[in-house]
Amino acid sequence: MTRLIKRKFGLCLATIVLALAVSVAGEGAGTHGFLYLESGEDTADFVIDGNINRIYQTPRLCTLLVGQHTIRIYKMHRGTITVTVDILPDEVLRKQVNLIDAEPPRPAGGVEELEFKPRYGQLTILTDPPDALVFLDGIRMHRRTPVTLEKVETGQRAVRVAARSFTWEDTVLILVDSTKVLNLTYSDISETNLAERRASTVSIRTTIELPGCRYRRDNNSDGRNNNVMIRGIDPFIDILSTDTTIHLSHHQLANFEVIRDGSGQVVAKEMPDTSIVVTLEQYIDSTVVFDLSLFPNPDRGYVNRNKIDGTTRQYQVPANLNRGEPVEVLLRIDANGEITFRYY
């Protein structure tokens, strides 16, 4: 009788242990897995399943739903790679891509983040006679010939040398840690109809989205009674081109609410969320640079802008990106000072 009771007790205990093991195994089967994506020494941007509202940068560990996902990795001047990955429950899939094998950049429809870590060489330009203008990739250099440009990104670079009514232009190959020398005379430079070339323009349409912000006058910190106390993001945006500079900030917008004290003095200005649209007509061989200075104060309360560490970012768009078609630029700044910069 005692042996029978012990046998039955042992069978019940084994059944309970087996049931617990199955239960634990079932609970451990997760619905998510992980992807660790890297691209060698250079960083690259990537989007998952075509969601351009979430742009990641390598190297990055991402949590994804179990199943198949499409990853698009891209980089300025390097092209685009599209890969398909299969994510398994609670497992880390390590994936490394080589942007040397990428498809060449397309002139339109791409989404490019313009920050990368280039390698450099040097370019020396001599002309006889001297004092000629130099343009590198459509950007006018500050110095005239003879000139040595110290940090020139490697690869094929567009060079134009202009002297009086004569111009010379061609592409030159810049190699890492080496100097390319151009020794030109006026016999090498062909006369060009500059008026005809400059008539070739392209439209660049920029939409700038700014978050709301509040400014308050602080007489103690600014003797000119400027509104230097802020809550939110205080942006200063300069759009620099070959011939035009446009300055934009919250202070220049007319759409704000003025707050006055009992005596009628302005004590604060409330800026709503704002969207600005700017259209530029640029020469097709020029480059437009967006120069941003941000003073973020996302916390509650007012802080003197002079006590905030500002951040500076710079982006550029070549006017001939779409081969003469209009270029659309989206520049968005959110309430925490995060910047989204895309062009199409």
Task: Describe the secondary-structure layout.
Elements: H1 2-28, E1 32-38, E2 45-48, E3 56-57, E4 60-65, E5 67-75, E6 79-87, E7 92-96, E8 120-128, E9 133-136, E10 139-140, E11 147-153, E12 155-163, E13 166-174, E14 179-185, E15 190-191, H2 194-198, E16 201-210, E17 213-216, E18 229-240, E19 245-249, E20 257-260, E21 266-271, E22 274-283, E23 287-297, E24 303-304, E25 311-318, E26 327-333, E27 339-343
Parallel strand pairs: 1-7, 8-14, 16-26
Antiparallel strand pairs: 1-4, 2-3, 2-5, 5-6, 8-11, 9-10, 9-12, 12-13, 13-15, 16-22, 17-18, 17-21, 18-19, 18-23, 18-24, 20-21, 23-25, 26-27
Helix content: under 10%
Helix tally equals 2
Domain unit count: 3
Mean pLDDT: 76
Q: Please provide the ordered H/E string of secondary-structure elements.
A: HEEEEEEEEEEEEEEEHEEEEEEEEEEEE
Low-confidence stretches: 2-27, 105-116
Largest pleated sheet: 8 strands, antiparallel
Shape: flat
Name the assembly state.
single chain
Our measurement of the CA-to-CA distance between the termini, rounded to an integer number of angstroms, reads 84 Å
Number of strands: 27
Radius of gyration: 29 Å
Secondary-structure class: mainly beta
Strand residue percentage: over 45%
Any overview of this molecule?
This protein has 344 residues and is mainly beta. It has three domains: 32-101, Immunoglobulins (Immunoglobulin-like, Sandwich), CATH 2.60.40.10; 120-193, Immunoglobulin-like, CATH 2.60.40; 201-343. Helix content is 9%, strand content 51%. It is built from two helices and 27 strands. Strands 17, 18, 19, 20, 21, 23, 24 and 25 form an eight-stranded antiparallel beta sheet that branches. A hairpin with a 2-residue loop joins strand 9 (133-136) and strand 10 (139-140). The chain is flat. It starts with a helix and ends with a strand. The relative contact order is 0.12. The model is unreliable at 2-27 and 105-116 (pLDDT under 50).
